Amino acid sequence: MIAAAVILNRVHPPKSSRTSGETISGSAVTDKAGSEYMGGAMEEDIDVTGAALTVAEQRKKELEENAQRMATFLQGPKSWKERRQWSGKWGREMYDGSGFGGFGCGLCCMANIYTSFTPYVCSPVDIYKYAQKVTEYEGYGAIDWGYMKGTLKSAGFTCDVGRKPKDYRTFQKIVADSMASIVVVSSNDSECYWKNTPGHYVTLLQYNEMTDEIFLGDSGDPAHNRHWVDLKKIYQSLKTANNWQYMTVTAYDEEQDNWKHKKISGPCVLPEQWQAYRKPE
Question: Fewer Cβ in 10 A, N or C end of the chain?
């Protein structure tokens, strides 16, 4: 067991008032629907059907509810052609001479985190442009770890990069102690989950410490996106040829957010409860 207590999930509605300088740490979720939910087993929440839920059932219920509030953008042209939820026209467009569908996974990961864990929202293209503004990222290709870290720091997050630990338990604890993580995976290291994937950024959004599963944001494969996946498969697939294998996001401070972006730009397909955050075309 890596944790004796259930990790609490904290929800902040958009445009809510906060104490100046408040920092959100641990596992946090922004409820874009506007209601505030404090994680943990409330007595009145447990006995919902006349039979008390077990701790594991209550935890699963909380995580499933939180997962519905997670943004998981898709990057590719096929997803946009099929009008899948979380796809956007950016998937078939060119940016600075390159197709976004071929390099946008890291930008989707950052947009997932910013939109899921702050009172604000953005599209992958919005954060693409912001990264160019606040770092030396030139665009037209995959964004590197340093530029991702610099962009998220400017947007109010505390984050750091790391290398694949030698033992799984260490990685497990790193993920459990984080608000979210971005990892790079490769089928050259393992084909247990990804095939024909030389290198790809994905987002780890919610960790279930009771089942050892992670709620995955995979912008490159709708069949993987928004699925619960064994965390050990992520560990086995980490791209060891990369200088770094993961970046943890451990806190968000609205006062340190220099962006505070309020709309999701670009034609896209969003779940109904997110429609209000679209920027008019």
Answer: N
Query: Along the 281 residues of the chain, how does pLDDT read in single tens digits?
Result: 333 333 333 233 333 333 334 444 444 344 554 433 223 333 344 444 446 788 888 888 898 898 999 999 999 999 999 999 999 999 999 999 999 999 999 999 999 999 999 999 999 999 999 999 999 999 999 999 999 999 999 999 999 999 999 999 999 999 999 999 999 999 999 999 999 999 999 999 999 999 999 999 999 999 999 999 999 999 999 999 999 999 999 999 999 999 999 999 999 999 998 888 887 76
Q: What's the token pair of residue 246?
A: 């993961």
Q: Where are the alpha helices (DSSP H) in the chain?
A: 43-46, 55-67, 77-81, 100-103, 105-117, 124-134, 145-154, 168-176, 231-237
